[in-house]
């Protein structure tokens, strides 16, 4: 594939005590593609997501977004830089409305200062109205308009996953990282999910997808990286990966184990020293284009 990658990651190492979760993992995600990240349970997929989104600090690693180096040490700054994600274990504000869950995502792009919020200035009110409109448009996009005023926790599992996607999209990400979005979905919901991810790609966004459903992954992804025990064991087109002996051995042959004990890493990683093991020559995330550089950001 030609052109420059949107996300370029190399040499990511992450150890949890005695567990070597990631051992030199890297991948290039091309813009406008759906890139699959697959592998058996415990391969390090979620940990990799956590390191690129600032939830867990990598011991080592090189991260570039749109050709600019970044240090994914703070979740909100990663969001402003253009990466959004969903979680293997759904994380919604269960007692808030569906609409408000999406509005929360939208606030990452808020322009007005806290003092304007406090004084409820016209600028603040205009922005709040715009946030509501944008959130409603996103609910329509994922097919949840009818559910807008329900409490998030009352939604079906499949709808909660779609709500998480809407909330992530509210930050206007260049890269949307989905951690097992089809887990727990029935066949009909999976078909709808596939169509939704294709729509997101058609908008020009880039999707990084962790998914166990081989049929979904092979049909949807432009390119696939396979992890096993913290190593990349294959990277290529779906057909190449599917016929790779190491992959068949490590993953496809053991797909029946895939839904055992889903594991999502706790937030505790975010409390680690952000400077630990990070190359001092790294630019901070602040060097990345900010919300103001995003053409579609609200004015
Ligand atoms: N916060 C954590 N603390 C300790 N061990 C962790 C943590 N997060 C992940 N691990 C371990 O790292 C390895 C990779 O896990 P994970 O990234 O969740 O794999 P996958 O998403 O591919 O199933 C596993 O052995 C897991 O137990
Ligand atoms: Mg996982």
TrEMBL record:
Residue segments, region Disordered: 257-299
Ranges of biased composition (kind: Basic and acidic residues): 257-266
GO CC annotations, alphabetized: plasma membrane
Keyword terms of this UniProt record: ATP-binding, Nucleotide-binding, Transport
Taxonomic superkingdom: Bacteria
A Pfam family of this chain: ABC_tran
The UniProt record lists the keyword Transmembrane helix: no
Record domain ABC transporter: where: 7-254
MF GO annotations: ATP binding; ATP hydrolysis activity; L-isoleucine transmembrane transporter activity; L-phenylalanine transmembrane transporter activity; L-valine transmembrane transporter activity
Name of the protein in its database record: ABC transporter ATP-binding protein
Acidic residues bias: start-end ranges: 270-282
A GO biological-process term: L-valine import across plasma membrane
């Amino acid at each position: 594939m030609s052109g420059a990658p949107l996300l370029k990651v190399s040499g990511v190492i992450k150890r949890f005590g005695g567990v070597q979760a990631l051992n030199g993992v890297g991948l290039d995600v091309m813009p406008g593609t759906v890139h699959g990240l697959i592998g058996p349970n415990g391969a390090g997929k979620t940990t990799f997501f956590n390191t690129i989104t600032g939830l867990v600090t990598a011991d080592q690693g090189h991260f570039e977004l749109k050709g600019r180096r970044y240090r994914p040490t703070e979740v909100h700054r990663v969001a402003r830089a253009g990466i959004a994600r969903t979680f293997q274990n759904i994380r919604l504000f269960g007692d808030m409305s569906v609409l408000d869950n999406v509005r929360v995502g939208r606030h990452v792009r808020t322009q007005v200062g806290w003092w304007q919020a406090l004084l409820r200035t016209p600028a603040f009110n205009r922005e709040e109205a715009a946030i509501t409109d944008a959130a409603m448009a996103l609910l329509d996009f994922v097919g949840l308009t009818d559910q807008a005023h329900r409490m998030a926790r009352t939604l079906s599992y499949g709808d909660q996953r779609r709500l998480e996607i809407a909330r992530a999209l509210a930050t206007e990400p260049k890269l949307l990282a989905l951690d097992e979005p089809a887990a727990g979905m029935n066949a009909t919901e999976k078909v709808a999910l596939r169509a939704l991810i294709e729509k997101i790609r058609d908008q020009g966004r880039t999707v990084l997808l962790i998914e166990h459903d081989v049929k979904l992954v092979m049909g949807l992804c432009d390119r696939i990286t396979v992890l096993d025990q913290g190593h990349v064991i294959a990277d290529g087109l779906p057909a190449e990966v599917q016929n790779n002996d190491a992959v068949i051995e490590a993953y496809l042959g053991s797909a029946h184990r895939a839904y055992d004990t889903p594991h999502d890493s706790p937030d505790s990683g975010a409390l680690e020293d952000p400077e630990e093991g990070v190359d001092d020559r790294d630019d901070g995330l602040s060097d990345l284009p900010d919300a103001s550089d995003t053409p579609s950001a609200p004015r």
